[in-house]
Amino acid sequence: MLRMLNNEEEVYMLEDPTLQLEQTNIQHAIIGEPMTSLSEILLSLTKTRLSALASVHSITGRSKMKKEELAEALSDYVTNTEHLSSMLLQMDGAEWSLFETLLQESSVQDNTIPYGDYAFLLDRGLVFSFFSDGQLHLIMPEEIRDAIRKADLPALKQQHGQHQLAYQYIVAASHLYGAVKVDKLLEIYNAQNEQALSAEELLNEVNEAIGRGENLLLHSGYIVNSYLLHDLDEQKINDWIAKVEGKPYYVPEQEELLRYADETYFEMTPQLSALQQYVLRELCKDQETVEYLIDDLQLACAKGSSIQDLIYEFESRKINFKNPLQAQQTIQLLTEVYNHTRMWANNGHTLVELQAIADGVKPELVKLVNISAADTVPKVGRNEPCPCGSGLKYKKCHGK
What we know:
There is one protein chain. This protein has helices at residues 7-15, 17-27, 38-44, 47-56, 67-78, 81-89, 93-105, 119-123, 142-149, 153-177, 182-192, 199-211, 234-244, 254-259, 270-283, 287-302, 307-316, 324-339, 351-357, 373-376, and strands spanning 30-31, 107-109, 128-132, 135-139, 179-181, 216-219, 222-225. It is globular, with a radius of gyration of 27 Å. The chain has three domains: 7-149, no CATH class; 153-259, Arc Repressor Mutant, subunit A (Orthogonal Bundle); 270-396, no CATH class. By secondary structure, it is of the alpha+beta class. It contains 20 helices and seven strands. The protein has a four-stranded mixed beta sheet. Strands 5-7-6 form a three-stranded antiparallel beta sheet. This is Zinc chelation protein SecC. It comes from Paenibacillus rhizosphaerae.
């Protein structure tokens, strides 16, 4: 039986990431001695938990089954070699690594293993977690291990590598481009890899990625990052696609492209670095706050947000300009960042790049603007010392 945490323990847990990991794992664990038999484990679960597992696998007639019938149907399903193979191919890299470990050792004891590393396996009844005597155990039941050994593991491993590579391309392209034509992604993949994919295979991979919870959807022949869909109706999505239609794609080499599969990755341009250094030096000394600011500014630029929206990122963090000079210098740095950020509306090109390669009408660079400097910073009298520190009166310096 788990006890409730008191207020002091709750605060400590929030401040201690290791304790948070452990508590998350305990919440999803079976409390009691570890079991290794699949049939015993399933029968120990509540009917609600069994029904949830059956729903994941779309087992027909589950709503009318008794608990024992559900347990038997689940056991038959997850030990079926064909079903197992399909589930194994859907695993990501961390899940496959854990699967291989459990196949050899059957049990892993780790109180702070990230829940995301085994949630997929847990939700499908391939792995079960137990919490006993202060320790968390991950168990792969004997029947599942036996069933997996009947499959062609070397072939499955090779297939999994191909699936994982296609998955990384899909996610990376959605992060770099926002929306990418299925045909274009297929062209990029096949140009960069010896073993080609068919259009049908790529679409299957996209649907599997969507099924895994990736923020993606298919719309009018495009793979769309769902960040684009926030507050957008279908007409606006179509307008967006019309805006990128016909523009050339920025296509990096494979190594650079696949970096974008990490949703936290972005290109740290010299312009972003200059802005970060300025903010740390002049506006905010908190390293973590500034790192989050730069992250959000980069995403806002990639999405084509306005300069006013970029300034709001400062305001929302209470990073204030002390004088008009700071406001103007920040806006100048932001303008440079904006013009050198890879943008979704430009198929991954920066405005500077697209200007250089565009045929016909060239996109305009964002110009330096004096937005809200007079409204967001304290007024400086014309005869007062200039806040830049020059020693001159404001009217003779930056107030000219």
